[in-house]
Amino acid sequence: MGNDVRTKMIRSAAVLFRERGVAGTSLADVVEHSGAPRGSIYHHFPGGKDQLAQEATRWAAGLMTRLIDRADDPVALVRGLAGFWRAELGGDFRTSCPVMAAALAEAESASAYAAAGAAFTEWETAVASILVRQGVPSSRAMATASLMIAAVEGAIVVARAQRSVQALDRVEAELVRLVSHLLVDTA
């Protein structure tokens, strides 16, 4: 049971960070959202909000890493990432990437901030590996992977602010074009 409560709190923190950011999410919010007993927060997270934010960031990062790792085709990956975020944004545009939220929260949680940096590096490396397996030189693969991650993350912010997926659609189209040309050039 203890691990179930802990896992629920980590998931709840990630969900709330997506909507409110790290600074806008209190421990009481996480307890309420997760349905955990009030006294359990410091039992499971003796480091308090900093520890919870770090673990929620790592958990969310792991979900995206697994999504990336399932891809063999970089064009399908671009489409898959855009489709995932299009669905996540839904019609209300209240959500964003919890890892991005942690990357913007250095003052609130240095540990989550560091976990976000590690997550972006992990995602870039995973995407670059897919490109290398398709014959793209490693230096070009890493640069393209960085561009892909940065463009998608930026498009999420723009889509949320504009309450439209138009930026995400444009980024998807341009990344598909770029990656398709890159694959042809290295064939």
UniProtKB/TrEMBL annotation:
<keyword id="KW-0805">Transcription regulation</keyword>
<feature type="DNA-binding region" description="H-T-H motif">
    <location>
        <begin position="26"/>
        <end position="45"/>
    </location>
</feature>
<dbReference type="Pfam" id="PF00440">
    <property type="entry name" value="TetR_N"/>
</dbReference>
<dbReference type="InterPro" id="IPR036271">
    <property type="entry name" value="Tet_transcr_reg_TetR-rel_C_sf"/>
</dbReference>
<dbReference type="Pfam" id="PF21993">
    <property type="entry name" value="TetR_C_13_2"/>
</dbReference>
<dbReference type="InterPro" id="IPR054156">
    <property type="entry name" value="YxaF_TetR_C"/>
</dbReference>
<dbReference type="InterPro" id="IPR009057">
    <property type="entry name" value="Homeodomain-like_sf"/>
</dbReference>
<dbReference type="InterPro" id="IPR001647">
    <property type="entry name" value="HTH_TetR"/>
</dbReference>
<keyword id="KW-0804">Transcription</keyword>
<feature type="domain" description="HTH tetR-type">
    <location>
        <begin position="3"/>
        <end position="63"/>
    </location>
</feature>
<protein>
    <submittedName>
        <fullName>TetR family transcriptional regulator</fullName>
    </submittedName>
</protein>
<keyword id="KW-0238">DNA-binding</keyword>
<dbReference type="GO" id="GO:0003677">
    <property type="term" value="F:DNA binding"/>
</dbReference>
